[in-house]
What we know:
The structure holds three protein chains of three kinds. Chain B is mainly alpha-helical. Chain B has helices spanning 4-36, 58-65, 69-99, 105-113, 120-131, 138-145, 153-156, 158-183, 187-195, 200-228, 232-237, 247-257, 261-290, and strands at 38-39, 53-54. Chain B has a single domain (65-290), classed as MetI-like (MetI-like fold, Orthogonal Bundle), CATH 1.10.3720. Chain C folds into two domains: 7-59, no CATH class; 66-270, MetI-like fold, CATH 1.10.3720. In chain C, helix 7 (140-163) crosses helix 9 (181-210). The interface between B and C is large, with 109 and 100 residues. Chain C: It is found in: Cell membrane. Chain C: One of its GO terms (biological process) is transmembrane transport.
Amino acid sequence: MGRITLDKVRKAFGDVEVIPPxxxxxxxxxxxxxxxxxxxxxxxxxxxxxxxxDVSGGEIRIDGQDATxxxxxxxxxxxxxxxxxxxxxxxxxxxxxxPLRMAGLDAAEQERRxxxxxxxxxxxxxxxxxxxQLSGGQRQxxxxxxxxxxxxxxxxxxxxxxxxxxxxxVGMRLEISELHKRLKTTMIYVTHDQVExxxxxxxxxxxxxxxIEQVGSxxxxxxxxxxxxxxxxxxxxxxxxxxxxIAKQHDAATIGIRPEHISVSxxxxxxxxxxxxxxxLGSDTFFHVTCEGIGEPVTVRVGGEVDLSYGQTxxxxxxxxxxxxxxxxxxxxx
Amino acid sequence: xxxxxxxxxxxxxxxxxxxxxxGWMLVPLTMTLWFSFTRYLPMRGDSIERGLEWVGFENYxxxxxxxxxxxxxxxxxxxxxxxxxxxxxxGVLLAILLDQxxxxxxxxxxxxxxxxxxxxxxSALVWKNMMMDPVNGMFSYIWRFFGADPVSWLSDASVPxxxxxxxxxxxxxxxxxxxxxxxxxxxxxxxxxxMDGAPVLARFWFIVLPHLGRAITIVILIQTxxxxxxxxxxxxxxxxxxxxxxxxxxxxxxxxxxxxxxxGSAGGVYAIILANIVAIFLMRIVGKNLDR
Amino acid sequence: xxxxVSTRRKIATTTLAWLVGxxxxxxxxxxxxxxxxxxxxxxxxxxxxxxxxxxLENYAVVQERSDYMRFLWNSVIIAGGSTxxxxxxxxxxxxxxxxxxxxxxxxxxxxxxxxxxxPAVGVLYPISxxxxxxxxxxxxxxxxxxxxxxxLPIIVWMLYTYFREIPGEILEAARMDGAGLKEEIxxxxxxMAIPGIASTILLNVILAWNEAFWTLNLxxxxxxxxxxxxxxxxxxxxxxxxxxxxxxxxAIAPILILGWFSQKQLVRGLTFGAVK
Lengths: 334, 292, 276
């Protein structure tokens, strides 16, 4: 079981309040991603749940039990660190077995569980190596192995993929999702990468300056961002945010339209503009179009290979059903 | 970065070291300070139990006023200054030499560093007898070989002799630290200077030496602290005669030989103040390094 | 990025460096060589570099006459004991300063350093008084305590600089894995810190072995280590060069060997981490 409840949890370092009182419930078996720009307090929040930092106020409950004052080792949580934090002087086998050894399990049971974890993570051939002899991806797997052998109530991941190169990152992302589907254990995952958040999460918590901006499933956040910050943060390429006269026409201070919800035509449309840089990805093509009456270039996403030359005049038409409207406080207008 | 629990544990674990050093610093220091204001001659029956006579600043005045004080300051300055000059200059040159590509670098390094590990009493005795003895010392053979009269080094040229012995002991320290510093110099900087047309001497003056500045300062400060209190080298060679009575040795003699504790303690307080002036500079440099 | 250096230049630097090295090493070399000569050959004019009668007699005489082994044993006990005691006290302190730093950590470290600057001669009499009072004069335990105290700042500093290189996340991982403070130190920190602790021990054994103020002033017959043993040769009778050499060789040999292993640590330890 792993239902985690934060009740008015607050954290201050001296006079600086990094997390103002905050409420959040994480259901058992959920994959929750904390996402936000660096310095938003997402890692601190994770460390509060882990017990590596003391809360300055409020209560943390794990499965209904007050865990606020419980030391990290007794919370039944496992954590995977950004730097992997493997013990360099121990073999992979000993690294994975360490939490079991600390729990006082007998040698045979330790060996059985290490074997099982190594099987799952494809580490069987590396059990006798030292962490220093492994690649980044393998180290990551060892760190995960060390977490899963304990059969914890919940896994905590602190930006676990940020030290891997892009190709490995995609692979590990899938592996972690796969692991979650199999174990069905609560996972809390911290990242600054909204793609990781969108692809892995059951529930995303968007944080800014210690505040929760929005909580919801990836598609809820995509479809109905509650404010300008979430609108700009979720989705890639970023949503086009347009103010001024064009927004006024829609009775809003700002309107937002995602690049994939704009159609391009060489003949006619709502906004006239000139094509700037085009980015060809093969599967998609991104155009950056400078439009009359809109300050920032508008990003447009078109499926497949489309060729428009630099400087060419085009017309853009936003899909009216997919238009997001925000008031002058940046909040969504329903 | 830590929980309340680990913070209190940390304080507890620091306690033994802090308490011991606090006691080590405060107890004897307080006693020295107290003695320095009293008339304390154990040979004439003064003792703490019977109560010491308070004499105010008399000991401080007498210590400075005595005929041995200024010569001892002079000897201290000459020895400390001489050793610093020799070790820093030769240390820089040696460090540069040892940084060059050569055969058997490791062995040369070991040869150069060896004197640092020789205990002070041994190096003083070896130099006194094996090297500087006017009859059987190596120097006397060399002098005679060239037809010169051997010199009684430790009586006729006592201060330079002490400087030589102590420099020999401390040159490895300076060399080792400066060599470490030189090796941390980015070779691209030197290559850039070479591309800019700077000749060897200019490269040394404008790039190597400024880079060594900090290390040289550290060498000077640390050596000064150790050199101010050199003892064994004088104890076993001249015993403080022939103008080699340093401040430290003078205090030692006041306390141990003449058993004038009050006077010696006043001298001790002067020495502590002197050492602290140097220490402040050293700690500022080390402290800056902690913030990195 | 090694550049091709002309062979001629390399020969020149090699020759120069070896000359300087041998010159600096000469007094030690000469002492060791003389220790194997007879007394008459030791003061032969011209000095004998070869062609002398190799003898070990001096070593036997030194041992017999002044009971070298007893001094050696005292040195070992005092240097080893003070280092061990210092490590036991310094490891927890350095651990907490490196991993649970507070605003005062820096001040405490600098203050500890400042106690190292205290001139020994300034507190000689009070310490002797305290030693007499506690019956510690001329005892090994007394010297162990004193040498531990004078080297404690260096030990704390060295360990601190080594501990700071251990990433804090690893200790947090251990905490998450269920390790208590004891297990954290025993299974994670100590194994990772072993190389640093070993270097610290090495340097401190050297410093304690060679300490020559307190060992000369606080011992007489019972607890005197090798520094005092050698000092007793400063007022010799008769021919004694070969014996002095043998005694000196025996006093410095163990530490010379240890010292060569600790060159790198020496720099870090003696500059309080300011030069690495």
